[in-house]
Amino acid sequence: MKKLLIGICVALLLTGCGSKGSSSKAGVEDHSLSEQNKTDAQKAAEAQSKADAAARQAAEDKRKQDEAARKAADQAVVKPLPETSMSAKPLTDVASVLKDPGSPLAKRSVYYDFDMYNIREEFQPSIEAHGKFLVEHKELRVRVEGNCDERGSREYNLALGQRRADAVKRALTLLGVTPKQIETVSFGSEKPKATGSNEEAWAENRRSDIVYIGIDSSQ
Amino acid sequence: MRDQMKSSRSPNAQPSHPSREPVRGRRRALTALGVACLSAATRAHGQLTIEIVGGGANQIPITVLPFGEEDAFSQHISEIVSADLNRSGRFKLQDIGNVRPYPTEPNDVNFRYWKNRGNQTLVLGKVLKRSDGRAEVRFRMIDTFKETQLVGFSYTVGAAQLRTIAHKIADLIYEKLTGEPGVFSTRIAYVAKNTDRFELQIADADGYNSQFILAHREPIMSPTWSPDGTRIAYVSFEQRRSIVYLHNLLDGTRSVLANYEGSNSAPAWMPDSQRLGVVLSKDGVAQLYVIEADGKGLQRLSYSNAIDTEPSFSPDGKWVVFTSDRGGSPQIYRMPAAGGGSAERLTFEGGYNVTPRYSPDGKSFVFIQRHQGRYSLALMDMTARQMQGLTDGEFDSSPTFAPNGRLILYASIVKGRGILAAVSSDGRIKQKITATAQDVREPAWGPLVGNR
Prior knowledge:
The complex is a heterodimer of chains A (219) and B (452).
Chain A: H1 2-14, H2 20-28, H3 35-47, H4 50-78, H5 91-99, E1 109-111, H6 124-136, E2 142-147, H7 154-174, E3 182-188, H8 199-205, E4 207-212
Parallel strand pairs in A: 2-3
Antiparallel strand pairs in A: 1-4, 2-4
Helix pairs in contact in A: 1-2, 1-4, 6-7
Chain B: E1 42-43, E2 48-52, E3 60-64, H1 77-88, E4 91-93, H2 111-117, E5 121-129, E6 135-143, E7 148-157, H3 162-178, E8 187-194, E9 197-204, E10 211-216, E11 220-225, E12 231-236, E13 243-248, E14 254-258, E15 264-269, E16 275-280, E17 287-292, E18 299-300, E19 308-313, E20 319-324, E21 331-336, E22 344-345, E23 353-358, E24 364-371, E25 374-381, E26 387-389, E27 397-401, E28 407-414, E29 417-424, E30 430-435, E31 439-445
Helix pairs in contact in B: 1-3
């Protein structure tokens, strides 16, 4: 919401609309732009090039969409949807579900044998839980991070880590998750979670992590 | 034998100069800044100490005398020359005798004395301090048996260039006596890691004058020098994913070479310094591509459903060797660098052979093999197709040839700490190189560039 308001301010400033005061006023008054503001904005917009007008229109459209979304959210508060309909839950509840240690979603890591990238049987339930959750929450995005143990070639490990991450992505998309919801990255053996040169550390580092963007990480 | 290059803690143990005190203080390392510091060539962590842990056969005896008046400068020419020759493993530094003062000109040399002691090849000279503060370095190499001068030069330089001149002298001696170019004037690049900070370092081949050209909190890997020595390509994770950059050492600028979806890595220069091989996963699994140094003209080189990575181009530009797991385990293959043609598998022993690097003469390649759970260096002769183990390390990686093909620098892990090490291409001479940094890895030996 905040970002959108800034967006409107910027759009108005870019169109050279009114004084600094009026544009900040437009920001403060939020989505329910007063008639006064609207008139000012329209007047100014007419004086601008077509491109500027289009930009302003885009901001307006965004504002309207947001308005609608806000109304929908208000409605949800008044008439809560049944528990089973998770897609209508606000994001904070999604986060709490993801962070519930009792949920199958709490397991975010897949572990591998040396030089392998296939997902072992024992991780299928976890993958399926994340797949189902992501299908139900099209708004959510994840980053799958592939890692390797320190042994051997750093470059080969980078390629292997990418393969591990891509294998998780493929498994999730086979469960119906939209490819756009998933990005992959390989850290190879460059970011070991466990330090030490022993089998225990190596096993921990042969791993893909499913990171929920905006919940587990800011980016 | 310990050849202490970087620290004043232990005495300089060159056999020829037992009485000389080291005068170099340990250089202050910067504290970690923890911020990106691009193009800032700054002295920092990760300076190297080189220790020779093996000895070569058929070493050439040589006597390097202290240069007259070299004590007037902080950098002592004869010590640097001796250390260079000693580190190469190809020379046996002889005792410098009891003649005082040391001869510094051919006319001072008592040939009978040196002949009787068996000191056939004598290096001598002097350093004259000029009124403007500059130094005139006069150097000669003499055959005391034939009573002739083998080589002799004079250089006039600023005090700051004395190390450079000493390396040039060592190169001249090396080339005169072995018939091959010396690599003492070359530079190396490597990655130093301190807690949460990665630095891409460049140093002289003896570990001195280390400076970082890139530093940030994310990993850096796979630095590689352009054959003309002006640029370094590397992989950096500063954008939280692997992207290949090109760093221009002449003006400190850099550019993005490859930033496609997925992983971008394993830059490898082609001999013309105009194009590079890179490995991209944008079309699925990691594959080989060729790209121009300005980032244009991307062309796919390999087409497999398996990992293809770590390209290394033959010096004649005709071939590329690379790692691929197309046969079920990572092995080394070769294919025409122009693309097309089928890939030929080159390694068959063991289930893990990676990181091939062509020798400068193109007749062999070094690689990493796993043998009984240990990862060590091996050399493959391209003609005989015979493999020779070079090291017995547990976690050796990232081999890089010296430009004369005599030594191979590589990374290893000893007691949980990343170190650099070097081995001669016949496996006989070994060096261990430690650093003030917590961890050093990913060495890349620079080319021979206009140093003679």
